[in-house]
Amino acid sequence: MGASMTEKIYALDLNNEEWATWLTEELRQPKFRADQICQWLWQKRVFDTEEMTNLSVPLREQLSERVDFAAPALMNEQRSAIDGTRKYLWQLRDGHTVESVLLRQNERLTACISTQVGCPLQCTFCATGLSGYVRNLSAGEIAGQFLAMEKSLDREINNVVYMGMGEPFLNTDAVLKSIRLLNSPKLRNLSIRHITVSTSGVIPGIMALAQSGLGVRLAVSLHAADDELRSMLMPVNQTFPVSELRKAMQEYQAATGDRITIEYALFGGVNDGILQARELVRYLKGIHVFINLIPFNSVDGRYDKPKAEDILKFRTVLTTAGFEAEIRSEQGADIDAACGQLRRKTMAGAPCALEPKAHSVTMTDMKREDSAPKTQRSAAAKKETAPKREYRRSETDFGGQSEVTKRPSGGFVDERGARHRKTDRPEKDRYRSGKMKEARPSYRGQGEAGAPSYQDRNNSFKKAAADNKRFDRGERPSYDKPRYDRGERPARDEKPRWDRNAKPANGERPGYDKPRYDRGERPARDEKPRWDRNAKPANGEHPGYDKPRYDRGERPARDEKPRWDRNAKPANGERPGYDKPKRNGFSKTAPRGSKPKKFSDKKR
Question: Which residue from 126, 174, 420, 601 has the highest number of Cβ atoms inside 10 Å of its Cβ?
């Protein structure tokens, strides 16, 4: 089996151009056969040559002998009863196994796929590193997980993250080729912006992705912003420290212009404190990032889950500093969805719990429940057995009532105790929304010492308006004082205003002492008669022109010349406005029945 496997080429490793070259050179087939085979594999998800019905039978036999069309085989599948997360264990052609996870958020499906069998980085919190490293996956084996998940679901998945087993940038060439296979329009045609590659900080791979020009999204698993703590969590930090990683992220962003996603796993009591949050803020300053806070999913009890109140405080520090940060909801907690957990259990021979059986309540169960004796407890007994709440009063006084300080809100249900309600405060110290008045900023500033406040000034305005009195404007000049001296020019109030309807006399205008300029012999504008548009002027005369019209000679004037009547048919050879007779010969105005003199009508 191993010898025959090495002789065959793997179908999912070839792109459309490689298929066309191989078919024309090896099998003497036309190039369009490559489009047909790629359509069967990547769009219809058919991995058996017998089902490729538009291929000829001899071609199908040749393909089955020389090409391996096998997709990753499903060995195990787990489904979460909480959020619908699915975890797959695939068996490859050589018998090794890898994991993939399907994450569901409403109608959005995201496939998390692996790039290596095992992982050589040995991160202390990762279950994959505990199993050791075996080998890299080929481009077809990486993309084949995505196709196998779609075939298992019988529907398309529109998002993929390279965040499964292994470090993608320790297998850079195969990862970049698998991205091109998924993005190719003739293959899967997955949008490039729906693909994300996650790395633990391998700097050469980050720079190779920037130079590739693919445009996929980059996620960096940081988990700590100082070398000491990060080296304890991730030994790869000894090779690529955080200072060099920060420079690589800046260079990547300068080359691509894309925002980087920071993956930060929170471990209880290790890296979830306020000091670590502030250090992360200083580390990421100047880089456009989006921070994903991931509550740790326990592996073999190495680290504890963080408390909910610590997670909220950590995010508050980041958002206050201006960063976008979200808490990723925990998914697949009941099926060990963390990378490598299912594979380790399968290798160890431990049973893997599949999807729980569906249970429906029958009539027999309902009768059995009704027939069961019910014990009644009195209110006094309930009161005695209920746990007593312990309160601690602080020295802060709110209107004569002491503040009741309880255990911090948040955390798990059994740890957080009684919740502190907004209604515990006095009504006069709260707004209708429930917020305390001290929590909102006050905009009623007093200004300088002795100056009236805005509220006092507003009250004085209202009082003046009520008394129908003008407000004292201080040093601003009133209208009782005389206007400034204009010299010989009359004051504004003494100067008569111009009546728009009255027509001034010739050469006079209000406000102008000097006469109009001398026009000479030309009459003034007001004395010149206006031209009546309806009146027809006499021949050679025009209003406003003293000179006679130019001499037209013997030609009659335009007004004396008779106009041409369009409805009247002119006589033969005559046309209004032409003194000369028409030329002899064929004419459009010749009477009907006349024959042309210069043309022969033999052909007619």
Answer: 126
3-state SS, residue 471: coil
- What confidence score (pLDDT) does residue 3 get? 42
* CA–CA gap between residue 37 and residue 47 (Å, rounded): 10
Task: Indicate if the pLDDT at residue 30 is higher than 90.
Answer: yes
Higher pLDDT, 604 or 310: 310
Question: In the numeric block, which tokens belong to residue 549?
Answer: 């019209």
Q: Strand, helix or coil at 290?
A: strand
Active site residue 141: no
pTM above 0.70?
A: no
Instruction: Check if the beta carbon of residue 321 is closer than 8 Å to that of residue 71.
Output: no
* Rounded-to-integer distance, Cα 571 and Cα 581, Å: 11
- The token duo for 175 is 């990862």
Between residues 275 and 1, which one has the greater pLDDT? 275
Q: Which of 38, 99, 119, 167 is catalytic?
A: 99
Q: Residue by residue, what is the 3-state secondary structure of 303-333?
A: CCCCCHHHHHHHHHHHHHCCCEEEECCCCCH
What are the φ/ψ torsions at residue 428 (nearest 5 degrees)?
-70, -20
Burial class, 218, CB count within 10 angstroms (exposed 0-12 / middle 13-18 / buried 19+): buried
Give the model confidence (pLDDT) of 146-166 as tens digits: 999 999 999 999 999 999 999
d(CA 319, CA 280): 12
Cα of 188 vs its chain's centroid, Å: 23
Q: Which residues contact 226 (CB under 8 A, 6 or more apart)?
A: 242, 279
Q: How far apart are CA 92 and CA 116, in angstroms?
A: 12
CA 162 to CA 167: how far, in whole Å?
9
Distances (CA, A) of 358 to 19, 82, 88, 152, 361: 46, 14, 21, 20, 10
Reported as type and span, the H/E element at residue 366 is: helix 363-371
pLDDT in tens, 438-472: 544 444 444 444 555 555 556 665 665 566 545 45
State the catalytic residue, choosing from 38, 112, 123, 339: 339
352 is catalytic: no
Three-state secondary-structure class, residue 336: coil
Task: Quote the Cα angle for 4-6-10, to 5°.
Answer: 105
Q: What gap in Å lies between CA 524 and CA 505, rounded to an integer?
A: 11
Place of tokens 């009863």: 81
